[in-house]
Amino acid sequence: RGLDCRDMRNASDPYDEEEDDDNLSSERQIVVGICSMMKKSNSKPMTQIMERLCKFEYITVVIFPEDVILNEPVEKWPLCDCLISFHSKGFPLDKAVSYAKLRNPLLINDLHMQYFIQDRREVYRILQEEGIDLPRYAVLNRDPDRPKECNLVEGEDHVEVNGEVFHKPFVEKPVSAEDHNVYIYYPTPAGGGSQRLFRKIGSRSSVYSPESAVRKTGSYIYEEFMPTDGTDVKVYTVGPDYAHAEARKSPALDGKVERDSEGKEIRYPVMLTAMEKLVARKVCLAFKQTVCGFDLLRANGHSFVCDVNGFSFVKNSMKYYDDCAKVLGNMVMRELAPQLHIPWSIPMEAEDIPIVPTTSGTMMELRCVIAVIRHGDRTPKQKMKMEVRNALFFDLFEKYGGYKSGKLKLKKPKQLQEVLDIARQLLSELGQHNDCEIEEKKSKLEQLKTVLEMYGHFSGINRKVQLTYLPNGQLKASSEEEDTLMSGPSLLLVLKWGGELTPAGRVQAEELGRAFRCMYPGGQGDYAGFPGCGLLRLHSTYRHDLKIYASDEGRVQMTAAAFAKGLLALEGELTPILVQMVKSANMNGLLDSDSDSLTDCQQRVKARLHDIMQKDQDFTEEDYQKLAPTSSPSLLNSMKIIQNPVRTCDKVYALIQSLTRQIRSRLEDPKSASLQLYHSETLELMLQRWSKLERDFRMKNGRYDISKIPDIYDCIKYDTQHNSSLGLEDTLELFRLSRALADIIIPQEYGISKLEKLDIASAYCLPLFRKIQLDLQRTHEDEAVNKLHPLYSRGVMSPGRHVRTRLYFTSESHVHSLLSIFRYGGLLNEGKDEQWKQAMDYLSAVTELNYMTQIVIMLYEDNNKDPSSEERFHVELHFSPGVKVCPDEENAPMGFGFRPASAKVCGSLSLLILEDLSKDEPDHTALTEPLSIHRKSPLLANRKAGSMEVRTFSLMAWYEFGISGETFQEGGVGQTLLLPSREHAGYWWQRGALCRNDFGIGPLFLCAAGFEGCSMVPSIYPLETLHNSLSLKQVDEFLSKVCESRNETLTKTMKFKKNTQVPCSGGWANRSVRDDQYRDGK
């Protein structure tokens, strides 16, 4: 079987006599017997888990040979202290029961209850007695000798069983759990017939049959069909306090089994709700099966148990194998070590309560983590606007309800196909009749057609079309068209494409998620010395209340999914993680903003910016006052680089012309014409986006459209990082100049003065601020829905404790706005608070809020303080400007580290430097895992140490976060582990010596081998603490003040605009988040 474990043996020869009880010593081993059919004993999950179980110092595993089980009397079966035995086809359960009665071992799974599990009627009876939700059902018992004598009445589209009516679709299950021939009957209007499910054969798990009549022999359970959107959830418990859940495509959907490249059925981990976790506990205890699998159907906002399978392991999850062995091993040792006088200390599950030293020196419990995070690296966003008047566009606008609000977004494949069909039809008519009455410009229609035909398929993540009704037409003012005003109504068509999350963006998000685990304390007992495992322990034992929100943009949602994958050590593709775990927040304005609808204030700001940046002269002192009234160093530096904005734009325009010429010459060269660029882009597509910028940046009147500057910087930043292998000339100069311009335009579009910044910021993110306030408030309120039920939580020391995590993934606008409110909203007085002044100086020096920018709020509770005291709750505010911009790494502003005061608190503890971590010492974790983006699990089995399994953990989180002297666990002689602070770690943290690269960005600068093209993935700036000693009262009052101030502004605005919808700023009044929308931890 390939088992390389000295403690696992196959007991081909049963013991001749029992071991003498007096001969117990410290060498006494606890024997765990595996009694099952050979196919089950030799399965990969069993092998993986038993290998890990052997790493417990005092545990030996013995596998009962199948020949002995089937042919020998139980008196000759091997002896064991603990028995893992379960029924499968051909297994003599009666003999196993007799053996247990004879030897009285500790039973992992009760044997008598396994008789009940084989009968679906008994399973449903037990579930019902436990108060567990089931689909509505009825049992039809037939006498085999008189099958027609039964209480069944069959109609065309329903059956009546014992007086209970079931309309199609309904499910028909044999009462024997061993019979997998389950049928689903469909109603006549849907085509009738039935889907016949069976145990998987090759790539099939069901077939469709035209037969609509129910079976006439045999006993069955009839139950209501639950609409689950094609997904089943399989739950696997290991004891009442641990459950792993996976979703798979429902076998009833099309009968085809989705398999991966290795031929295994595709499943993916999902999160269980608080109620589902309670159900898992109830199932485990009711059926007395420590290791137990059961099926959940999620339908109509509820979860229903539809099957209990008994002993069942997860397949292909290293994390589950680690967890399962740990839980089983500790359970065996806890029960048997005292009886056998084995010197083993019982883990007290001290990691249940995540306690850390605060920066002020007190010990407090982490209660809440809130993070607002910008999406990862993306392809350049592109946009084309055209005015359309053809009746076909108006018909489409009316078809999808555009007249209700005057606006329409088209993202679905069917909708985009209709737009493409219209473009093709109009172009065809233009080609046949040049004088036909089609007002749409041919070049625009061709671009619309080209973009919609890209990729060969539609995806809302890639492209979208927006239509806006213009009652009187629109003044055309682009570089391509004359300034004319046409009478009559029209539609403004805005086509957006690009902006997809890149492979580098996925890596950034996943690695940040993995590093983010280290924000959470924990690691006592079995997790000693494993940074980040405190979070995994909390999550697997139901005390991590996690919800992930994302705006409706594809790049934002995929970033959230990749982050979740890294945070929770999930495996598999991102799409299913996205579907199951990321909540879309577009229904209430929480994370989305309509960029085409600006506040009055923002429109005025943009107009002023445009005027200032159109002056063909060096910036004057007056310009400095107008453009940078906050005296931000980053703004002042950019203005010094630019000097004369028009001359700088001239240089940028000339550099773009040079770039397009170079790309054209490459296209003419046969050697490079078919060159594949990063993320499957071609030279032709690259030329298209730069040619469009060249056309649009300089208008026909000779002036520059400064709204294109962010797009220019976006494109050159992308090409500098991802397509540098082309060797195009002067790209770094274009990067330098466009960045200087963008460092002015982008932040100042969100307000020039402090008051403007606050007005625009509150218009963007008032709902998010309200939600953050609720998150902080509800953390310390009684929320039974998000906690384990105390009556069912034996074995967990703190069932009432949980850590709430709320992650909000969004775009640049929300991150700018949120930071503006913290900076200028009056949270603290810079003159009176030195730490806040230093934080504001640091933020003023930050030039760009790049991809993966994070704003993190952490809430701690001191349970020794009076609940009404301000000292009871402690709030910390942290920030990272996101991904490092490679060419300018050396000039990056430096903060004061993450939780900088903690180094003083822990100063007396010994610091383990990098060299020490690699030594194989008995009391330290060996950190030997190579840096790689292709890890299956961050926890790898390494070696035995006492009764716990020691694992390696990636150094990546430590390098990346640059966490300063932070303790990840307390207690345990020689097991206290501190991360190197910057002073100790400067060599590898700051200079990137381990990678020896030119950008000095440390070990996370990885080559994305295995992704399309070859691109470097830059690392992310470590979190910097802005303030680490705020009280919850302070923060709550500040958030209330911001919300009240915004409401007053809205009230005044609405008085002037009673009969019109207020753009953006007023819009929040109509779609603001109601407090009760977020009750029960939503």
TrEMBL record:
Annotated localization: Cytoplasm, Cytosol
Start-end of Basic and acidic residues biased regions: 1-10
Keyword set, alphabetical order: ATP-binding, Cytoplasm, Kinase, Nucleotide-binding, Phosphoprotein, Transferase
InterPro entries per UniProt: Acid_Pase_AS, His_Pase_clade-2, His_Pase_VIP1, His_PPase_superfam, VIP1_N
Domain VIP1 N-terminal: 30-119
EC number from the UniProt entry: 2.7.4.24
GO cellular component: cytosol
One MF annotation (Gene Ontology) recorded for this entry: inositol hexakisphosphate 1-kinase activity
Short name of one Pfam family: His_Phos_2
Biased composition (Acidic residues): 14-24
Main location: cytoplasm
Stretch list, region Disordered: 1-25
Catalytic function, reaction form: 5-diphospho-1D-myo-inositol 1,2,3,4,6-pentakisphosphate + ATP + H(+) = 1,5-bis(diphospho)-1D-myo-inositol 2,3,4,6-tetrakisphosphate + ADP; 1D-myo-inositol hexakisphosphate + ATP = 1-diphospho-1D-myo-inositol 2,3,4,5,6-pentakisphosphate + ADP
GO biological process: inositol metabolic process; inositol phosphate biosynthetic process
Similarity-based family: Belongs to the histidine acid phosphatase family. VIP1 subfamily.
PANTHER family assigned: DIPHOSPHOINOSITOL PENTAKISPHOSPHATE KINASE (PTHR12750), INOSITOL HEXAKISPHOSPHATE AND DIPHOSPHOINOSITOL-PENTAKISPHOSPHATE KINASE (PTHR12750:SF13)
Protein name (record): Inositol hexakisphosphate and diphosphoinositol-pentakisphosphate kinase
Encoding gene (name): ppip5k1b
